[in-house]
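Example 9 (inverse folding). The structure is encoded as follows.
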């Protein structure tokens, strides 16, 4: 072989190998059906994920029962064969037999595309299957409820081959009474099959940051079950939900229970505790609200530096005999707005002005995508934000599991909750958006940490803004409403919101609403190639090193303090951690490295909060 030919051969060999490498790397971000999605990063909590103990904590801290059965763990899965079934019909005729071949195992509740699921592939239609037995300690008189924390997006549920029900919505919990579908006697094994359809951004449903072609501010899609699945036994009549509110000006707790299969002979007993101490108790009927007054010397308010929670026990009584009991909690916390001495509208917490220095949290994990590996991972993110001196997390275009909000309640982290976005271009999509907005508010209204509902972000899918503000107020009048975070302002809601990158840039105050900066920053710093999701990163601006990033952060806060003097109530930094190719977080995507000194950032944030909270 001549030297010239060797050079040409080597050249084409290098091109071929480079092509293969590029195809492998780019293929990990391709979300066409069946594409293998091999994530590049893990978190330290991946090692805590054990198949026999997947998210073992009770999934619904606001309504706790003693007996329950965790169905997280290994299920069978396969690409669905119901692709020709019209989506939206009530009872599709689908069957799964014991002889059906499945593609393998999936670790529930991690979404199909994630590393922790064990699959790492993407399909828009799939089937789950598993066997379960009813615990022998559960009485045959019990009704059996099957709960799903969240499934993305349309779900059809079958027990022992019988259609139980369907659900549409990616972010809200739902359940079915499966008692009549169980085998008898109850010690026999039952089959649960779950069919899922998720068109991601090819569909008309809210989906937040999910995309089948992730890049920049759009991230990898998730499909299927992504929150816990569990069973619980209940009596023939049981407590379905509790609507709990508090009034700090009158020291009153109001509880409005919803009872399934209510009867005239039923009544309720309420107990409110401070630790082990019984503070107040009351008896009430099942068809209305019960009000209880906390003695003035027993009243403790909830705030970020003292997140006190009262524990609540509720018993459902049948002629005085307990037939159901649930545990819950509440807090005395008030959020509103008022004019300061200069006549500017400002946000108040518990009747005192507070400046909100928040940070954006996208709710993504490199190993679990939408699903955090474990409870410790959830707590760590919140504690990290606190350690950096932030007093609020803006949950950006995603709704988390109840356990995330529970830890915000317990740890004292304020929450600005976004409604996940969709395109909302058709009447059908607008109807879906409205339906899911209502369920987001209803399913998360219990949590005192949430102080703001945000309806639209940067004009995406924005429509009928004033009508949605009215609807949200009807559902929850106790929190502030941000009609539109950035871009299109229709002069409604409680907040006037401006975005600027890197910024910050204050909105023009109108003396009617509170002025806030819903997002600023977005400064990219690549801390280490070993902590990158992809090699090509993205951000609004760049810093060459940690010192430069810190200097920029300090400069931004000097500008914020000038804006506070003109009435600014809140500012939200973009963002807490990197997500995929978007590398403008304070922390790397794998939560392994802080890009700037934690003590310095905390000092800056706390000084700004203090500066803006004194009137």
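The amino acid assigned to each position is listed next.
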């Amino acid at each position: 072989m001549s030297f010239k030919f060797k050079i040409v051969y080597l050249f084409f060999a290098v091109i071929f190998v480079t092509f293969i490498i590029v195809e492998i790397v780019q293929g990990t971000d391709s979300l066409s059906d069946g594409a293998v999605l091999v994530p590049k990063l893990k978190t330290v909590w991946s090692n805590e994920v054990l198949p026999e103990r997947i998210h073992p904590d009770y999934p619904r801290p606001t309504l706790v029962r003693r007996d329950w059965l965790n169905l997280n763990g290994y299920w069978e899965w396969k690409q669905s064969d119901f692709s020709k079934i019209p989506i939206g019909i009530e009872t599709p005729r689908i069957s799964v037999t014991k002889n059906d071949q499945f593609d393998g195992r999936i670790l529930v509740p991690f979404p199909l595309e994630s590393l922790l699921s064990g699959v790492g592939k993407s399909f828009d239609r799939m089937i789950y299957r598993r066997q379960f037995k009813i615990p022998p300690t559960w009485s045959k008189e019990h009704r059996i409820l099957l709960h799903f924390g969240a499934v993305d997006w349309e779900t059809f549920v079958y027990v022992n081959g019988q259609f139980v029900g369907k659900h549409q919505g990616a972010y809200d919990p739902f359940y079915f009474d499966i008692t009549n579908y169980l085998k008898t006697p109850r010690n026999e094994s039952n089959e649960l099959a779950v069919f899922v359809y998720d068109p991601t951004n090819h569909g008309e449903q809210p989906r937040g940051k999910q995309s089948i072609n992730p890049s920049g501010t759009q991230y990898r899609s998730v499909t299927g079950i992504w929150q816990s699945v569990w069973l619980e036994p209940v009596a023939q009549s049981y407590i379905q939900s509790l609507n709990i509110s508090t009034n700090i000006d009158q020291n009153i707790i109001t509880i409005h229970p919803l009872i399934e299969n209510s009867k005239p002979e039923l009544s309720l007993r309420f107990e409110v505790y401070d630790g082990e101490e019984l503070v107040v108790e009351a008896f009430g009927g099942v068809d209305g609200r019960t009000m209880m007054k906390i003695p003035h010397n027993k009243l403790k308010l909830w705030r970020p530096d003292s997140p006190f929670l009262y524990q609540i026990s509720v018993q459902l009584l049948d002629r005085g005999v307990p037939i159901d009991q649930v545990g819950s909690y509440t807090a005395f916390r008030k959020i509103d707005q008022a004019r300061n001495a200069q006549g500017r509208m400002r946000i108040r917490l518990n009747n005192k002005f507070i400046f909100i220095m928040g940070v954006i949290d996208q709710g993504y994990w490199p190993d679990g995508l939408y699903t955090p590996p474990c409870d410790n991972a959830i707590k760590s993110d919140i504690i990290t934000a606190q350690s950096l001196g932030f007093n609020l997390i803006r949950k950006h275009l995603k709704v988390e599991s109840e356990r995330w909000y529970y830890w915000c309640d317990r740890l004292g982290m304020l929450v600005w909750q976004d409604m996940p976005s969709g395109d909302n271009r058709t009447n059908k999509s607008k109807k879906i958006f409205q339906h899911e907005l209502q369920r987001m508010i209803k399913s998360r209204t219990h949590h005192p940490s949430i102080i703001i509902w945000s309806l639209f972000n940067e004009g995406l899918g924005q429509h009928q803004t004033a009508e949605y503000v009215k609807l949200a107020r009807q559902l929850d009048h106790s929190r502030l409403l941000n009609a539109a975070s950035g871009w299109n302002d229709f002069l409604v809601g409680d907040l006037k919101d401006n975005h600027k990158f890197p910024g910050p840039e204050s909105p023009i105050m109108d003396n009617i609403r509170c002025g806030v900066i819903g997002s600023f920053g977005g400064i990219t710093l690549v801390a280490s190639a070993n902590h990158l999701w992809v090699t090509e990163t993205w951000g609004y601006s760049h810093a060459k090193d940690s010192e430069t990033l810190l200097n920029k952060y300090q400069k931004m806060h000097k500008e914020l303090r000038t804006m506070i003097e003109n009435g600014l109530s809140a500012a939200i930094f973009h963002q807490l951690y990197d997500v995929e190719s978007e590398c403008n977080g304070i922390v790397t995507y794998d939560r392994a490295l802080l890009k700037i000194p934690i003590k310095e950032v905390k000092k800056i944030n706390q000084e700004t909060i203090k500066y803006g909270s004194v009137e």
